[in-house]
Write a structure and sequence with these properties.
The chain is of the alpha/beta class. The protein is built from nine helices and six strands. Strands 1, 2, 3, 4, 5 and 6 form a six-stranded mixed β-sheet that branches. The longest helix has 22 residues. The two termini are 33 Å apart.
Length: 282
């Protein structure tokens, strides 16, 4: 099997392979665009995506120095206003205001590093670097209506790739000094819910484990032939996949409210994946 020239592995492409090797093949090797809805109602889904894009853009502009008052005047959506107010409360809180004030801020920054003949890439919503080398990766989660469980988050490629890649490629953000795994923290901030934060500290053992895991995924992809990419055995994952009709796993798109059921938070892998917003190009 040969990957396209210049192919780069992101958290999204690796997650697709883990969730369904056939989806990885169709999307990244065959580059097949399939005319199917991801979910119904389509207009509501599009609204969620636009809201997430607008929020990420506002946070980026704020962290680059644009006054909050000026940004607030641009808000015309009630959900977006609530998210923004929650963001301002978070960065102004007693616990987090010192973290933001003392750090160099890198919003919407991309990093890459080689691994086994390919490149790993990630686009971070926000990276904070302190003078003593403490580093915070913050990912803004805006469109989840049900909070995913911690176990599910811990197993996501984003939680593994982002800290690993920051250690590998983040020295130039730290005046050329390497970032130590023990000083790296992965933080998810959720716009919905009473408790917005989920934090994952990093360390050298996790760094080694993640490197071995990523190498194993790349080797597994490289070892497959053109006909060897199997469909996922968990057909719940097909409900929100655009290739479901091509794979004869259903015709109609699942409803958006099926991805927002709080009772499904521990099985979030069956839900619609909004984390593509993390890789938006502004």
């Amino acid at each position: 099997m040969s990957l396209p020239d210049g192919f780069q592995f992101s958290q999204s492409s690796l997650q697709d392979f883990v969730d369904c090797p056939r989806r990885f093949q169709l999307r990244y090797l065959w580059r097949l665009a399939w005319p199917a809805l991801e979910t119904q109602p389509a207009m509501e889904y599009e609204r969620f995506l636009r809201q997430g894009e607008a929020f990420h853009r506002m946070v980026q502009q704020y962290l680059l120095g644009l006054p909050s008052e000026r940004l607030e005047r641009m808000i015309q959506d009630q959900d977006l206003r609530q998210w923004w107010e929650g963001f301002i409360r978070f960065i102004s809180s007693e616990d987090w205001a010192p973290v933001f004030q003392a750090a160099k801020k890198y919003p919407e920054i991309s990093l890459s590093a080689p691994l086994d003949g390919f490149r790993l890439v990630a686009k971070y919503d926000c990276v904070l670097i302190h003078s003593e080398g403490e580093a915070w990766i913050i990912d803004w989660k805006t469109t989840h209506r049900a909070r995913p469980g911690r176990r599910w988050l811990a197993e996501r490629l984003q939680t593994r790739l982002y800290p690993y890649l920051l250690v590998r490629a983040g020295a130039y953000l730290n005046q050329g000094q390497p970032l130590l795994p023990e000083k790296v923290h992965m933080l998810y901030w959720f716009a919905e819910g009473a408790q917005p934060l989920e934090r994952f500290p990093y360390n050298s053992q996790k760094f080694s484990e993640d490197q071995a895991y990523l190498k194993g995924l790349i080797a597994a992809i490289g070892a497959l032939g053109k006909q060897d990419f199997p469909l996922t055995e968990d057909q719940r994952r097909c409900a929100f996949c655009v290739y479901r009709s091509l794979c004869e796993r259903g015709l109609g798109a699942a409803r958006l409210d099926e991805a927002e059921n709080p009772e499904a938070s521990e099985d979030w892998e069956i839900a619609l994946d909004f984390e593509q917003i993390a890789e938006i190009e502004f």
